[in-house]
Amino acid sequence: MSGPTQRGGGSRASADRLARLLNLVPYLLARPGIELAEAAGDLGISERQLREDLELLWVCGLPGYGPGDLIDMAFDGDRVTITYDAGIDRPLRLTPDEALALVVALRMLAETPGMANRDAIDRALAKIEHAAGDLADAPVTVRMSGTGDGDQVEALRSAVQRQRALRITYYTAARDETTERVIDPVRVLVISGQAYLEAWCRQAEAMRLFRTDRIDALDELDESAMPPDQAQLHDLSTGIFRSAPDLPLVTLRVGRGGRWITEYYPCEQVQPGEGEEWLVSLRVSDLDWARRFVLGLGPDATVVSPPELAVRVRDQAAAALDAYAQPASLSADPAPVAVGH
């Protein structure tokens, strides 16, 4: 009886402390040089607890977690002043739209197959629903688009169980094209909330992973699925994408707002550049995908190499500017876009 209660109490204490830390930075920003005793009294905690919170804040900050990324503060005796807030410059207050978005996201997460820590998700959802009040009961339909259509996933699972071949129409994002192919399905799996079908592709004559939400159409064939003996399941222990020496190597110069890519994509090298810039090198499956990726980063990324990618990005940016060009009578010149080479 005592074990679960203690774990639950620890989770609640951690959640309370997180909320306090998120509000502590903007509180101190509004009161530079405040005495610790006065701040502790305002916050309803002991001075010792406040000091422990400040010690924890000192190792919190933006991805990179080096000098210039972490929350910083200056002490003058028993007075404290925040000198760098890492973007936490206002109290944690959710707008109605933000609260509803969190409710929807947590409900979707709770419905993800195989999701761990379901109790933590349910507790967070309950707290936000309580805070949102009647808004949480707004008529919102939640569908797991990230794992594909539920009926389609079930149809794929059924085909795997009954070992039936399929004809599918599939959109390949890397090449921005839709193709039709016959496959021999092997298994359906969910990775990071996304459902995939692993199958032998007769067109490619190799094992392939198909995102279920990119399967536009599927037909079950009147023949058995028969992957050849040489078909080998993918090793997914390190994730979906596996870097290889023969894939194109892309080097980008990214600013602070683009550093997040080093947290989400396997990078071969990350080096400090000028000022707050980083030089990031990573392998990509296709330069067309890399072009769309760089354009999505906007001003936070500049192509260093390969030159071919810089040309593709520049041409796409120029075409976009031409499309948005205003008539001369409006005398509204589009802002220039600088793309490095």
Automatic annotation (TrEMBL):
Domain WCX: 250-321
Ranges for domain WYL: 153-218
Cellular compartments per GO CC: proteasome complex
UniProt feature coiled coil, ranges: none
Keywords on record: Proteasome
Domain of life: Bacteria
PROSITE patterns assigned: WYL (PS52050)
Residue span(s) of domain PafC HTH: 16-129
PANTHER family named in the record: PROTEIN PAFC (PTHR34580:SF1), PTHR34580
Protein name: Proteasome accessory factor C
Native source species: Micromonospora polyrhachis
